[in-house]
Amino acid sequence: MDTVLEAAPQVETQIAVQIDPFSHHVVAIVPAAGIGSRMGASKPKQYLTLLGQSILAHTLDKLLSHPQINQVIVALHPEDTEFAALPQAKHPKLVTVIGGSERADSVLAALDKAPDNGWALVHDAARPCLTSQDIDKLLASRVHFPQGAILAMPVRDTMKRANSLGEISSTVCRDNLWHALTPQLFPTSLLRLHLKAALAAGAVVTDEASAMEWAGISPGLVAGRADNIKVTHPDDLELAELFLLRANA
Ligand SMILES: Nc1ccn([C@@H]2O[C@H](COP(=O)(O)OP(=O)(O)OP(=O)(O)O)[C@@H](O)[C@H]2O)c(=O)n1
Ligand SMILES: C[C@](O)(CO)[C@H](O)COP(=O)(O)O
């Protein structure tokens, strides 16, 4: 095992981090503590039903059944009342923690329960259409990206910047622009260190890669499938159901 000195440019002191580049231990971290305000449903969107089971149950099935994932840590809302009733709730690979007020806080709470060595594969509860091929592809990318990588999709459309009146103010060059997806995969101790520091510094951290970028690291981009959508708005429900139906056919 190597001990390396990782220094975030914004952090004055250097901190020793244990990284085992050969570890194959993989922990999936599932932030599931959101309230789904944009969905506007009567319950948090991860508990809405698609094809007979909740969105969170679909997501957990994908992660719990993957042979290279050793443990799954789910971050739940402090007032969650539904998780215990899921068929996956008592799975031997599964652990729960209480999440925080932002997605990044929930991820950090789960990371604090993960073993130091090995890898953390962070995946939104709200992305139930993840495929095992995409998990395989991301795990295989560790050879090329020892400091971590994310699933992402190149931007396909012309991009416009709007002014405050809802008019186009400019066309944004889409060269090298990607949509960040999940899972996002990083050495656990490195992600914990940089996520903690980025949050303490007040950085905007909407995904794990943002925390690593803040620390001066350039995570890899691994092309993922377009059907790995995040269920965010009501019209995403129908689309996700169609993708799940096709995957089960
Ligand atoms: N405090 C939070 C906020 C979000 N999440 C999780 O992060 C994922 C992606 O977040 P998003 O789609 O934004 O979910 P919500 O925050 O629930 O949605 P909204 O922003 O519309 O309220 C979801 O699985 C959500 O449950 C979380 O674990 N803890
Ligand atoms: C992490 C993420 O899924 C990457 O696309 C996304 O940023 C999370 O959603 P949010 O709406 O930013 O919370």
Automatic annotation (TrEMBL):
<dbReference type="InterPro" id="IPR001228">
    <property type="entry name" value="IspD"/>
</dbReference>
<dbReference type="Pfam" id="PF01128">
    <property type="entry name" value="IspD"/>
</dbReference>
<dbReference type="InterPro" id="IPR050088">
    <property type="entry name" value="IspD/TarI_cytidylyltransf_bact"/>
</dbReference>
<feature type="site" description="Positions MEP for the nucleophilic attack">
    <location>
        <position position="230"/>
    </location>
</feature>
<feature type="site" description="Transition state stabilizer">
    <location>
        <position position="45"/>
    </location>
</feature>
<keyword id="KW-0808">Transferase</keyword>
<keyword id="KW-0414">Isoprene biosynthesis</keyword>
<protein>
    <recommendedName>
        <fullName>2-C-methyl-D-erythritol 4-phosphate cytidylyltransferase</fullName>
        <ecNumber>2.7.7.60</ecNumber>
    </recommendedName>
</protein>
<comment type="function">
    <text>Catalyzes the formation of 4-diphosphocytidyl-2-C-methyl-D-erythritol from CTP and 2-C-methyl-D-erythritol 4-phosphate (MEP).</text>
</comment>
<comment type="pathway">
    <text>Isoprenoid biosynthesis; isopentenyl diphosphate biosynthesis via DXP pathway; isopentenyl diphosphate from 1-deoxy-D-xylulose 5-phosphate: step 2/6.</text>
</comment>
<feature type="site" description="Positions MEP for the nucleophilic attack">
    <location>
        <position position="174"/>
    </location>
</feature>
<keyword id="KW-0548">Nucleotidyltransferase</keyword>
<feature type="site" description="Transition state stabilizer">
    <location>
        <position position="38"/>
    </location>
</feature>
<comment type="similarity">
    <text>Belongs to the IspD/TarI cytidylyltransferase family. IspD subfamily.</text>
</comment>
<dbReference type="InterPro" id="IPR029044">
    <property type="entry name" value="Nucleotide-diphossugar_trans"/>
</dbReference>
<dbReference type="GO" id="GO:0016779">
    <property type="term" value="F:nucleotidyltransferase activity"/>
</dbReference>
<dbReference type="InterPro" id="IPR034683">
    <property type="entry name" value="IspD/TarI"/>
</dbReference>
